[in-house]
Design brief:
The protein is an alpha/beta fold. It has a single domain, classed as 4-Layer Sandwich (Metallo-beta-lactamase, Chain A). The chain has helices at about 30-40, 60, 65-70, 85-90, 145-150, 165-170, 175-185, 190-205, 220-235, and strands at about 1-5, 15-20, 25, 50-55, 75-80, 95-100, 105, 110-115, 125-130, 135-140, 155-160, 210-215, 245-250, 260. Helix 9 links the parallel strand 12 and strand 13. The radius of gyration is 17 Å and the shape is globular. The chain starts with a strand and ends in an 8-residue tail after the last strand. It binds zinc ion (ZN) (2 copies).
């Protein structure tokens, strides 16, 4: 599999995942030109994408989908619980929607959606595998629950949100108190420290690469997220770049391209 985040954060999210035979995007909250440029860098023709998988209905995850789906005839997959909202909000022919309430396959990818705590109508993370090569994408999550852990443990690669630093969040002047409370709740977003504790568990399950995602533009920085998480992990004898690689999903720039190969295809 080849995996690459194209954009991450409240200004728009999009992650690309491909296997030998299948190409999917998770969410698209970016302008059409942005996504086309990023796909072009990956040498991916947009009309070769088999599906856009939606995590939830917040605009930073769906606002680019109508144009992209219409321009290249790309089917859209989402949970049945948000079907009405999406049909209402996206300007896309109804036939383009595929609503799910359990696992499904697209080509040679097995897609396992699972519920996460977030203050949308309904929100899922995705565990995606080609045979025994597994990637999980978990952004927009108020709480790293046991059931999330049980679902994604031992994934080779995890895109996990490190949304905010509590001090920066509380001192940011342009957020009203209710919004700070929402972000900081069990149905909002993960702080750097909560993310670090989740990574600690994942590393013990066998995960070796975590991409810090959905980093807030206002109440976090990439450097602060990495340094907070690295020092927590070091205090638990988990050494970044030795026991686990930490990478970054950027706001306006595609991230690193990663490859994971199923055992049967390694020579
Ligand atoms: Zn959200
Ligand atoms: Zn979001």
């Amino acid at each position: 599999m080849r995996i690459c985040n194209l954009a991450s954060g409240s200004s728009g999210n999009c992650t690309y995942i491909e296997s030998e035979k299948t190409r999917v995007l998770i969410d698209d909250g970016k302008p059409l030109d942005y996504v086309l440029n990023a796909l072009n860098e990956l040498k991916v023709a947009p009309d070769s994408i088999n599906a856009i998988l939606i995590t939830h209905e917040h605009s930073d995850h769906i606002k680019g989908i109508s144009k992209l789906s219409r321009a290249f005839n790309i089917p859209i997959y989402a949970h049945t619980y948000i079907s009405e909202i999406l049909i209402h909000q996206l300007q896309v022919d109804k036939n383009m929607f595929n609503f799910f309430d359990s696992d499904f396959d697209i080509g040679d990818l097995h897609i396992q959606p699972f519920p996460v705590q977030h203050d949308s109508k309904y929100c899922v993370g995705y565990r995606i595998n080609e045979e025994d090569a597994v990637v999980s994408v978990v952004t927009d999550i108020g709480c790293f629950t046991d059931s999330v852990y049980e679902t994604i443990k031992s994934s080779a690669v995890v895109y996990l949100e490190a949304n905010y630093d509590p001090e920066m969040l509380m001192s940011y002047p342009n957020y009203p108190p209710f919004l700070k409370k929402r972000i900081n709740s069990d149905h909002g977003h993960l702080s750097n420290l909560s993310c670090a504790k989740a990574i600690e568990k994942l590393v013990h399950s066998g995960t070796r690469l975590v991409v810090l995602s959905h980093i807030s533009e206002h109440s976090n920085t990439e450097n602060l997220a990495v340094s907070t998480i690295a020092s927590y992990l070091e205090s638990k004898n988990i050494i970044p770049n030795v026991n686990v690689k930490l990478d970054i999903a950027h706001h306006e720039q595609r991230g690193t391209i990663f490859r994971i190969t199923p055992t049967s295809k390694k020579n």
